[in-house]
Amino acid sequence: MRQGDALLNDDVWQRLQAVMDSRATTGPERRSGTHPLLGVLFCGTCGGRLYQSWLSPGPNRKVPVRQYRCAAKAHGRACAKPAYVVAKPVDGYVEREFLAATGNREIIEVVSIPAIDHSGEIAELEDDVRELAAQLCKLRGPAADAVGGMLQSRSDRLERLLAAPVASARTKRIRTGVDHAEKWTSAESADRRQMLLDAGVRVVVGQTTRGARDVEGRLSFTMGDPHRQ
Q1: Which residues contact 31 (CB under 8 A, 6 or more apart)?
Q2: Are residues 152 and 129 in the same domain?
Q3: Do 98 and 183 sit in the same domain of this protein?
Q4: What pLDDT score was predicted for residue 30?
């Protein structure tokens, strides 16, 4: 938060804030450089991500105001008209649109099941069995007993693997009995963001003239197929 006389104008201040937020490494929300809608909000001019920043207190603002804005310039990219918007109404809009589309749909978890294939171990065991069998023919007494035991152990293991089923890698869809609205209500900010990303939610923020208050009129909400979830 700035105090005292302003040394930087608002544009420079906000650009610095955007860079700091995107690079921050401390704090509950900043450890990974994220904000609630990072990767969901995009600039309507350049298509770049919108980052979280803060409008500093001034003559018409007693407290800092959280906002989302295009940080193209701060990241060395060109953007003719960087988008910016107050954060709170955008958060509410995204939540409402997302839950309207998916809220009553059950969450289906997709679990990856690895392949079952022992071909590598089978090849090694076959080599061991051949080598041990060749050694056994040349040995007598305790040495032969020891090698014979090793040969039997590997032969038994080889037999079990040859009889084991082989399966390709696959995925399994599991019903959770929980819908998106229920999960959203109990989820932390980072988990909500992941839900939006998993559903392919994308919100484009269009331009506005200074002082315009129609925030939702500037927002375009799209998402992937909600039936996937």
Answers
A1: 24, 25
A2: yes
A3: yes
A4: 39
pLDDT at 119: 92
Task: Tell me which residue range forms the domain holding 141.
Answer: 115-163
C-alpha 133/C-alpha 58 separation (Å) is 87
Confidence of residue 65 (pLDDT cuts 50, 70, 90): confident
Higher per-residue confidence, 178 vs 58: 178
Q: Are residues 136 and 188 in the same domain?
A: no
Residues 97 and 192 in one domain: yes
Average per-residue pLDDT for the chain: 84
Q: Indicate whether 102 and 132 sit together in one domain.
A: no
Residue with tokens 């918007």: 85
Question: Could you give the angle at which helices 87-102 and 189-198 cross, rounded to 10 degrees?
Answer: 60
Q: Based on the domain organization, do 126 and 27 belong to the same domain? A: no
User: Distance between CA atoms of 28 and 185, rounded to whole angstroms?
Assistant: 19
Which of 45, 36, 53, 41 shows the shortest CA–CA distance to 77?
A: 45
43, 151: one domain: no
pLDDT for 75 equals 87
Residue 170 placed within a domain = no
* Side-chain-side CA neighbours of residue 142 (13 Å): 0
Q: pTM of this prediction?
A: 0.63
